[in-house]
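Work Package 4 report. The design task specified in the project plan requires that, given a folded chain encoded as structure tokens, an amino acid be chosen for each position. We show below one input record used in the internal validation round.
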């Protein structure tokens, strides 16, 4: 029986020597090759199963290219796991003088179990976010645990996926066991000492070169290194994401999370901050009070002071259903009718503050752009009312600020946070009757009924309303609400006409749109001199196209309607994001000379660019960053030249740096 087999049986105590070091290297090299094979197999299956997300122009050579670069980057992932195994097994053998092969098998079992679990989680994650794992997973720990588990259970088939992951891991473990316990190639022996020394030196050099090759992802130099930052080598979103295996995707999520927490990439120091402040304000004075740079003076009310203001943050209300090419879907007719009114204005070039609902809420309520500082979860969000916060500024204009949410008050600490930021009243699901809903909250019609029932003639109120019905799990009784699937099916491409689940999701968009429009009509009937602002919280959840353009994927609408509003309120080239809502609202209703604070500018002044966590938008173009794609937002319509990156970068850096500093360090620019 070979020595390695005897060791596995535990019948032999082995002192450590050169042969055992060689065996450890050989065994961990076998583990490395096995893990690389598993990861590449999962990558191929992922592409095969998700092939409907491939763009039409993608060819087989693109798939081969993605697999090649995926193999290279996965050498890093598998190499890290194998290296961990090597040191643990080597330490074990040195400490207890026994073969470490059982330990290596245990580690390998854990590895394939983890990879299997991530593989089965990746597909629904991609369907939801059009990405592999990203920084949004860090926000998962702040979610309502029960609601999240129920959604995974009902909407994403959690139990079957866990069973499949377990079965896959068991099969891989059996294969790994046979592979690890297969014969060991013996170490060559030579009669002369110098020959043994030379062969050992050559072996160590080979191990070193192999380590470098793995470290740089199939290259011997850093110049040819491949990592998550340069892995987008095809023109297809799915293939670019497939290049990153699940471990690399998790590493990307961690890196992005850490970078934004520490404001990596921005020179955030007092001297530069003063320059950022001067750029945003246009003031040439120098002060150590950051808030002075954020102070603005209203130019004079555009509309007569409304009796009530209703700001509706509509769950997953993307802009693409409002586009002409999707008119036959009939899922956004309610908001379209509002936009068509003469007393309504519509901003087409609008971005959400972040990828999730809470990011949108934070951007609207605080006025700060997303710097990945979840203020609802850290002390800085409760130590003061930020001067840019929307509620206390509307309070100074005579409005009682109230927050209405369809879900539970415990979600994301939303109740505690909005009250800390100046809202005087908060109403959640437990505060009004809700005969139907899901784990995330009440059906929208019950929320809107509660808002109307709770709105009185005096005093004037400012109401932020956050809906949830257009969110998985999709549980609204659509038939009872009058939904007609055939009206939607007629506007679908042939490949989706029979997809009942997709039609159900579109039906929930239709329901949310109908409830919103009915609320606006009822509220206007009761309070005709009220002002309404309607904005999506985020997009990137549902699209007809499997590979939509950036505008269709990320754009959200902003609609303002009420007496005194006209189409001319916003110019055709106006662009913005959630941080522009507060100054826009103030400029609409505040008297001339009213002092207020904001990071973003009012859209009534024709703001030319909007930014968020990773994108920028103008009235004609949308893009990612300096080297990212730039796309026109009006399709075939003739557009002017795209904005220069230097100008965009200055604006982006200023908005992010000022937001980050004010949230984290307060209003002073003194060195810390």
């Amino acid at each position: 029986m070979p020595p390695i087999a005897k060791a596995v049986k535990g019948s032999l105590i082995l002192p450590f020597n050169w042969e055992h070091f060689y065996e450890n290297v050989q065994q961990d090299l076998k583990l490395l090759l096995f893990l690389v094979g598993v990861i590449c197999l999962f990558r191929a299956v992922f592409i095969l199963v998700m092939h409907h997300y491939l763009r039409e122009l993608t060819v087989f050579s693109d798939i081969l290219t993605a697999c090649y670069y995926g193999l290279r980057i996965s050498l890093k992932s598998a190499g890290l796991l194998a290296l961990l195994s090597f040191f643990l097994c080597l330490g074990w053998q040195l400490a207890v003088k026994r073969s470490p092969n059982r330990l290596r098998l245990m580690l390998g079992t854990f590895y394939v179990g983890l990879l299997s679990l991530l593989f089965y989680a990746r597909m629904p994650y991609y369907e939801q976010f059009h990405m592999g794992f990203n920084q949004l997973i860090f926000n998962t720990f702040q979610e309502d645990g029960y609601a999240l588990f129920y959604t995974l259970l009902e909407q994403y088939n959690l139990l079957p996926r866990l069973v499949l992951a377990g079965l896959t891991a068991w099969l891989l473990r059996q294969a790994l066991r046979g592979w690890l316990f297969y014969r060991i190639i013996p170490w060559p022996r030579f009669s002369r000492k110098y020959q043994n020394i030379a062969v050992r030196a050559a072996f160590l050099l080979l191990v070193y070169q192999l380590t470098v090759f793995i470290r740089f992802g199939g290259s011997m130099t850093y110049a040819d290194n491949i990592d998550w930052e340069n892995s987008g080598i095809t023109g297809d979103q799915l293939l670019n994401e497939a290049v990153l295996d699940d471990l690399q995707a998790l590493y990307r999520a961690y890196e992005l999370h850490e970078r934004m927490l520490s404001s990596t990439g921005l020179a955030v120091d007092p001297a530069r901050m003063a320059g950022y402040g001067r750029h945003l304000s246009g003031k040439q004075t120098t002060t150590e009070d950051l808030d002075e740079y954020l102070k603005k003076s209203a130019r004079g009310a555009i509309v007569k002071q409304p009796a009530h203001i209703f700001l509706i943050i509509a769950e997953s209300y993307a802009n693409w259903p409002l586009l002409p090419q999707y008119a036959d879907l009939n899922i956004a007719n309610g908001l379209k009718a509002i936009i068509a009114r003469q007393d309504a204005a519509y901003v087409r070039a609008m971005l959400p503050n972040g990828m999730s609902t809470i990011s949108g809420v934070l951007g609207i309520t605080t006025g700060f752009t997303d710097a990945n500082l979840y203020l609802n979860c850290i002390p800085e969000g409760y130590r003061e009312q930020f001067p840019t916060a929307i509620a206390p500024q509307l309070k100074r204009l005579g409005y009682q600020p109230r927050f209405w949410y369809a879900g539970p008050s415990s979600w994301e600490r939303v109740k505690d946070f909005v009250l800390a930021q100046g809202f005087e009243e908060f109403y959640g699901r437990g505060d009004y009757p809700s005969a139907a809903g899901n784990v995330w909250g009440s059906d929208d019609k019950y929320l809107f009924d509660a808002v109307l029932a709770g709105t009185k003639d005096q005093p004037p109120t400012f109401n932020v309303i956050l809906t949830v019905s257009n969110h998985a799990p999709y549980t609204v009784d659509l038939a009872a609400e009058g939904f007609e699937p055939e009206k939607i099916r007629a506007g679908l491409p042939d490949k989706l006409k029979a997809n009942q689940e997709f039609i159900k999701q579109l039906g929930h968009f239709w329901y949310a749109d109908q409830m919103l429009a009915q609320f606006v009509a009822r509220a206007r009937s009761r309070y005709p001199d009220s002002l309404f602002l309607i904005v999506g919280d985020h997009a990137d959840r549902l699209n007809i196209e499997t590979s939509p353009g950036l505008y269709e994927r990320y754009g959200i609408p902003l609609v303002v309607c009420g007496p005194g509003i006209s189409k001319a309120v916003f110019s055709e080239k106006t662009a913005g994001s959630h941080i522009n809502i507060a100054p826009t609202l103030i400029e609409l209703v505040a008297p001339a000379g009213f002092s207020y604070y904001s990071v973003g500018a009012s859209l009534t002044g024709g703001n030319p660019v909007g930014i968020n966590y990773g994108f920028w938008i103008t009235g004609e173009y949308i893009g990612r960053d300096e080297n990212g794609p730039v796309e026109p937002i009006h399709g075939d319509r003739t557009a002017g030249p795209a904005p220069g990156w230097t100008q965009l970068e200055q604006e982006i850096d200023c908005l992010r740096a000022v937001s980050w500093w004010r949230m984290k360090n307060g209003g002073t620019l003194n060195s810390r």
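The chain has two domains: 3-260, 299-665. Validation will be extended to a larger panel in the next phase.
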